[in-house]
């Protein structure tokens, strides 16, 4: 898309914590924008210690701060979806998803229904796990809002999931040396691998708690 390419070009020339936060807010809301073009390039630039690349906007970038500000943006975008879902309600959300503007945002009734079904089946923790699933990541905040999930729990799970995903993207940007082709090729595989590890960890924890109770 020309708009996405224009934004990427602008971001390359204005890479700083503010632009990272802004773009990750957009990525986490209902406006489609890939996080793979935000965090990995910034992490690669930050890894170039001693290079002129490592300084943008007259100050150096730090990988940990990149992840933190990216997570802040992701949480802000998620809160936008959460609040809009509470304010508008289910009928308007689904009507918007099937509208022309909704389709421009790559929304559809099927996608929103998929996110809502996932949330209903897995409960509040889906706002954490859902941040690691392509196609669910940006939409999981909608059913959380529709079900009026407690806001504190929503923030905690969303922050944890977004932080983990952004850390993975930062690592990918470093390993791939900022090459977008490799980043796009392996981001999905890494997402699946992290998701599997999280599910296994949760399963082990649940089994441990049950054995401890017995």
What does this structure look like?
This protein has 11 helices and 2 strands; from the N terminus they run H-H-H-E-E-H-H-H-H-H-H-H-H. Strands 1-2 form a two-stranded antiparallel ribbon. It has one domain. It has helices at residues 2-13, 17-28, 39-47, 63-88, 90-97, 100-104, 109-122, 126-129, 141-146, 151-175, 180-213; strands at 55-56, 59-60. 72% of the residues lie in helices and 2% in strands. The longest helix has 34 residues, at 180-213. Helix 3 (39-47) runs antiparallel to helix 4, helix 3 (39-47) crosses helix 10 and helix 4 (63-88) runs antiparallel to helix 10 (151-175). It is globular, with a radius of gyration of 18 Å. Strand 1 (55-56) and strand 2 (59-60) form a beta hairpin. The protein is mainly alpha-helical and 214 residues long. Residues 50-56 have low confidence and may be disordered.
């Amino acid at each position: 898309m020309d708009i996405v390419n224009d934004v990427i070009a602008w971001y390359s020339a204005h890479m700083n914590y503010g632009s990272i936060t802004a773009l990750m807010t957009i990525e986490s809301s209902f406006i489609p924008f890939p996080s793979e073009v935000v965090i990995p390039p910034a992490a690669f630039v930050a890894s170039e210690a001693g290079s002129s690349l490592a300084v943008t906007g007259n100050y150096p970038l730090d990988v940990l701060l990149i992840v933190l500000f990216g997570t802040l943006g992701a949480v802000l975008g998620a809160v936008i979806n959460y609040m809009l879902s509470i304010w508008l309600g289910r009928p308007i959300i689904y009507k918007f998803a099937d509208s022309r503007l909704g389709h421009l945002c790559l929304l559809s009734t099927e996608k929103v229904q998929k996110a809502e079904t996932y949330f209903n089946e897995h409960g509040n923790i889906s706002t954490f796990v859902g941040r690691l699933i392509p196609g669910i990541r940006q939409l999981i905040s909608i059913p959380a809002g529709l079900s009026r999930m407690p806001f504190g729990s929503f923030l905690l799970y969303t922050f944890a999931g977004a932080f983990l995903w952004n850390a993975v993207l930062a690592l990918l940007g470093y390993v791939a040396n900022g090459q977008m082709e490799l980043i796009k090729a392996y981001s999905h595989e890494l997402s699946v691998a992290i998701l599997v590890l999280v599910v296994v960890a949760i399963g082990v924890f649940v089994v441990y708690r049950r054995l401890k109770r017995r």
